[in-house]
Amino acid sequence: MTDSDRDGVRPRVRVEDVGRRYDSPQGVVRALEGVDFDVDAGEFVCLVGPSGSGKTTLFRIIAGLEESTTGTVYLAGDPVEGPGPDLGLVFQEYHLFPWRTVSGNVGFGLEQQGVDRDRRERRVRDLLELVGLDGFAESYPRDLSGGMKQRVALARALAVDPDLLLMDEPFGAVDAQTKRMLQSELLDIWSETGKTILFVTHDVEEAVTLADRVIVMATDPGRVREVVEIGTDRPRSRSDASFGEYYERIMELIRA
Fold it and tell me: How far is CA 56 from CA 118, 162, 200, in A?
């Protein structure tokens, strides 16, 4: 029983004894084994670990894009059985429709849900303002920078008002200055919307900057080594001693 259960509050996400095995010419590959953790509603949790620790595989299982061999993922108490509107997905690759405008990309999920035009346009307008793109509604992806494309992808994920925002290395393809700007903007959006965020990254500095808690994965098989709670207030400065202490602690866990 978790602390959330004892307090009478159901976690937004529960990963329970999740394992994933693959058959290969060399034998069975254990990508994940015995992965357990909870994410509470409104929490910002980062997932880090060395290559081969199963971060992306776990992301895909939580997103319903891949099945686990053992265990179950629950979203608000219900088992995840496939992608759905209660999950918003943001990847490193933007996956925008090049033939659609910015507003057309953001509103795509709403169209699929049959939301009427007036409501859809209001929602898209509000989201573009939220991500700082209100002047680019009629632009096409080819006219945007990498950082702007990722803002469109984030707005599209938020459009259907998902319970959980899953992000897999979303800022990995942009330069360092743009990455820091996007991190700050994401924290503002998280604070304003109250969304639950599970964020996969290989960048430990990014995890310490963003997260309430950092789940550190280990390899062979992929599993949770330790969960590190970041106890300093935001915004966090990389020059602070506490920031460096968290960074070194997590790096030691990864190197181990």
Answer: 37, 20, 8
Burial class (CB in 10 A: 0-12, 13-18, 19+), 89: buried
What does the alpha-carbon distance between residue 69 and residue 20 come to, in Å, rounded to a whole number? 5
CA gyration radius for the chain?
19
Residue 88 and residue 158 in contact, taking contact as beta carbons nearer than 8 Å: yes
Closest CA to 160 of 63, 79, 84, 74: 84
- Burial tier of 91 (Cβ tally within 10 Å: 0-12, 13-18, 19+): buried
What letter represents residue 73's amino acid? V
User: What is the C-alpha to C-alpha distance for residues 13 and 63, in angstroms, rounded to an integer?
Assistant: 11
Spatial neighbors of 48 by CB under 8 A, at least 6 apart, are 55, 200, 201, 202, 203, 204, 207, 214, 215, 216, 217, 250, 254
Mean pLDDT of 167-184: 91
- This prediction has a pTM of 0.91
The residue length of the chain stands at 256
CA 254 to chain centre: 20
Other Cβ atoms closer than 10 A to 44: 21
pLDDT above 70: residue 5: no
CB atoms < 10 A from the CB of 159, how many? 24
Centre a 10 Å sphere on the Cβ of residue 3 and count the other Cβ atoms it contains: 10
Q: Model confidence over 116-143: pLDDT tens digits?
A: 999 999 999 999 999 999 999 999 999 9
* CA-wise closest residue to 254 among 57, 28, 51: 51
Give the whole-angstrom CA distance, residue 249 versus residue 256.
11
